[in-house]
Fold these 2 entries.
Entry 1:
Amino acid sequence: MHYTRPTALQDVATHYCAGCGHGVAHRLIAEVVDELGIRERTLAVAPVGCAVLAYDYWNFDVTEAAHGRAPAVATGMRRCNPDKVVFTYQGDGDLAAIGAGEIVNAANRGELISVFFINNATYGMTGGQMAPTTMLHQRTTTSPRGRETRAEGWPMKVVEMLAQLDGTAYAVRCALDTPKNIRAARAAIKKAFEVQLAGQGLAIVELLSACPVGWGMKPVEAIKAMAGTMTAQFPLGVVKQREK
Amino acid sequence: MAHVLIDPQRCKGCHLCIQVCPKKILQPSAQLNERGLYPCETSDADACIGCLQCVLVCPDVAITVTDDDARATKQGTI
Ligand SMILES: Cc1ncc(C[n+]2csc(CCOP(=O)(O)OP(=O)(O)O)c2C)c(N)n1
Ligand code: SF4
Ligand code: SF4
């Protein structure tokens, strides 16, 4: 019945905008790292995007990769240090656009890494441009009339796509909106670490996340808009769970 | 007994916690913090039931819930 800051999270303020989902995702990962007692052997790879400064926030070693290349960096880290627990933390621009090739091949190789994929349906850092995961009819600075399939294609369903690959052991989509969904996300993050610890293959957790500033909404409005809009185009739940 | 503590300097005033508190004891403060934002505050820290709903949605880990009376006193809520 009490809550104090996780040890795996440094006692500093973040630079994220008010209501940004990155803060919730950072906290959940830190809580799980503490719970599993793996802080001393956890290594993370941060993305290019709003989470580029994640190394200032977690209380374990974090490196920074070139845009989209976190899975390749994590591959090297994990293969050279088989006793470590390695994860990447990537936005949808980082993972699904410029880094699409890296994540697909890391999953196909079944790298023993956990991937936390923040899908906020936009490029937050650079000013709210369209991402591969931008929703149909969603207005962004580069889809001012709303995303249309004829010109811009469909929202990319990353976990469904990666689940097709034999090297992917666990693929799940969660949402960081309601307390109930946030609890489920925490359980999924824990599972993604356990899959790595058991040597089963690549684990990916997609976290639907609010970018109130990029969406042009107040935080409360942005969170409310997620249920129904975002979860209708990106269904929640486990897409794949391979046992060995 | 639970007590909720909100760090006014860490809170960015997103007000997400206000929406989820079943006891309706969280509200925007009338006082600006050092960032120039109106943080959340509690109207009745002792009415907290320790459900941690607010903690779950807070992106800034600005909320601590404690059942340790000594600690709550030190931080000035009781
Ligand atoms: C090689 C390269 N290309 C483009 C950029 C510009 N850039 C910086 S962040 C970013 C996308 C960020 O979006 P996302 O990964 O969704 O993260 P978010 O900021 O939304 O968390 C881009 C395109 C860059 N830094 N480097
Ligand atoms: S721009 Fe969006 S993703 Fe970036 S910190 Fe602000 S709310 Fe978060
Ligand atoms: S722990 Fe529950 S009752 Fe207490 S302030 Fe937070 S949401 Fe309200």
Entry 2:
Amino acid sequence: MVGPFAWFKWEALFRDWTVFAEGLKTTIMVAVLSLALALILGIVFGVLGTSQWKLAKLVSRIYVEFIQNTPLVIQVYFLYHGLPHMDVMIPVFAVGVLGVGVYHGAYIAEVVRAGIDSIHKGQMEAALSQGFSFWGAMRHVILPQASRIVLPPLTNQAVNLIKNTSVLAMVAGGDLMYRADSWSSDNLYYGPAYVAIGLLYLLLCLPLATLTRRLEGKTGVSS
Amino acid sequence: MVKNTRNGRRARLIQLEGVNKHFGHLHVLKDINLTVKSGEKLVVIGPSGSGKSTLIRCMNLLEKPSSGKVTVDGVDITAHKALVAKVRQSVAMVFQQFNLYPHKTVLENLTLAPMLIKKVPQAEAVKAGLAYLDRVGLKEKANVYPSQLSGGQQQRVAIARALAMRPKIMLFDEPTSALDPEMIQEVLDVMVDLAHEGITMVVVTHEMGFAKTVADRVIFMDDGLIVEENSPQRFFENPTHERTKSFLSRILR
Ligand SMILES: Nc1ncnc2c1ncn2[C@@H]1O[C@H](COP(=O)(O)OP(=O)(O)OP(=O)(O)O)[C@@H](O)[C@H]1O
Ligand SMILES: [Mg+2]
């Protein structure tokens, strides 16, 4: 009887290490780009969520609620299977960046909104009264203060985002999860495949998670 | 003290015409008409909730009137697409809660807006900033953060920050109300100094001593209306309205 973690299975895995390296590369690239997208969306919609302008607030609310209350998998399926029916074709890599970015953008928007709301409204008033525009006040007065509060939950979002890039496996996205799936469904060496990529995800996430904890400690001390 | 209260030649810097403000069904300002002339010191008093803050905040459009017209330095700031931010550069405001930027040093608080908004070169902004700090007696605090200062010191920095924009008008909304009693005078001293330099000031305050020595005119607000408007001498010695009398008797007790 051969165990699920038999040595020759590991040997096969190390022999095919380039498969997993490719997957790691794709996962990192999707993570980095979708994090950038999520940050942009999160800041824009987070700020809009705090504005006096009712329409902007509503649009921000709809985005956040819609994205947070539907599964990521369905959103990605929509991009992958749904859009082509509307004659919009996007490569699977872009599906990953867009899907994960838009999804986490909604969470980051909430983090940013809460951060901005925690800054006393007198700060905005002082900046406006000096002649700053709304966005100028945001950039130079509000966001620098909010960023200290927002940083720990933000790095936490980055960790979740990295893990969630694995959704790409469901649309043959070529990421780590997908490579492990396809490699092991050929040879049925599931054990080593999933343990190996599990460790790789851990390697990516653990430093960020540690950073989160550090930052939380810092803000905890100062407040 | 003699003051030139009725100087018709002086330009009208602030003009409110038929200004109303509603918050939901609260009618907070009721058809206000008011003119502030260049160089004038106007003191606004009245009971809590009478609309003083709302009135003064309409002068730089931090509060948008529900109806009526506000003209500042010749610009109708209530007009559609008015360049409000531009006008605000010359209308400085000092707040009850100071509202200094806590992530910036004292000096940076003074140089931020001049550099970013008026595009003053850094060296020049720093030099001017230090001069204004000196003027409020806090030059040695240039490089500390606001949280390291006492309330009175913070408010003096806030006044210096306002001055650093070289405004034509200074609005004060109860600048000493959040201060411990022993710190009130140091802030009032700075304000009295300013008043002597001819800058236009609108001051919401309950500091009657300040009103008496500095004001050209005092208005008394109650329930969204300007109930009484007079020179400080007449206002304090000979108030005509019942509501003014009872308010004064309460605070001058
Ligand atoms: N943003 C707001 N939303 C709703 N109501 C408001 C708002 N701002 C002010 N009010 C109400 O308008 C009325 C006038 O307020 P305002 O702050 O102008 O009074 P005030 O004379 O400055 O009082 P105080 O001496 O307490 O500062 C009050 O009843 C207040 O509760
Ligand atoms: Mg007030």
